[in-house]
Amino acid sequence: xxxxxxxxxxxxxxxxxxxxxxxxxxxxxxxxxxxxxxxxxxxxxxxxxxxxxxxxxxxxxxxxxxxxxxxxxxxxxxxxxxxxxxxxxxxxxxxxxxxxxxxxxxxxxxxxxxxxxxxxxxxxxxxxxxxxxxxxxxxxxxxxxxxxxxxxxxxxxxxxxxxxxxxxxxxxxxxxxxxxxxxxxxxxxxxxxxxxxxxxxxxxxxxxxxxxxxxxxxxxxxxxxxxxxxxxxxxxxxxxxxxxxxxxxxxxxxxxxxxxxxxxxxxxxxxxxxxxxxxxxxxxxxxxxxxxxxxxxxxxxxxxxxxxxxxxxxxxxxxx
Length: 320
Description:
Structural class: alpha/beta
Largest sheet: 7 strands, parallel
Number of strands: 7
Shape: globular
Radius of gyration: 22 Å
Order of helices and strands: HHHEHEEHEHEHHEHEHHHH
Oligomer: single chain
């Protein structure tokens, strides 16, 4: 049986292997995803983002527990920084969620960013789709938390939760990173620390200044202490309230459509680049172009136009 058929039959090892192949960029993984794609589109995707040290992984651990109490199957994609030596994930968020390791209703996968900007790994969307096809009803994506480039999560998640903590200048950070625009819910974690109430008030005040239209979602600011399991149930209730708002307003279908468009465009860009660049690397044209540009006998704009003309004119002639 193919990996896809084994995954649909409930084989967790097959799922883990396909996720590894996707992360490594193996072409064979695309054939498996073609088989899985009709079985996707059912999972609720929850994004968790915020600066390092905000306690995102501990919060995710507690969220898993609440959703499992509600009998929901949960997938977690934990994005970690990349090791400069191995190219792998260096934090290993699964360690923090170890108590769920033996639960068949929970599947946790760590991915390395591998230099990909935007807070996510290149293969995140595909891995989410695998978990969706596995029957995970809630898929939680925890971003790398690098501060100011957490924009990709809002394009992938249905609900985005922005985590902050007192004492990190989060009011200024929020303005700089534009997180006020991406958050559907704001959580001040480690609420036992001094200044937590002030941080929450400042965030709430900034949210009130946002211009909104009638019927738009109004994000709330909640306080939590993930390490002591305080405020987690209230957080889940607010996430579910946002989920209902998306369904009732029709926004959920629009988000799914936008995600499909983006996935198609990302794949098209990736395949076109691989085909064109791979071709000029093999036939030596790339080296020629670099030498011509270095000597200023050509410019990068003309070189790109020439390569595209050569490549696609060749395709048109072979098809005619």
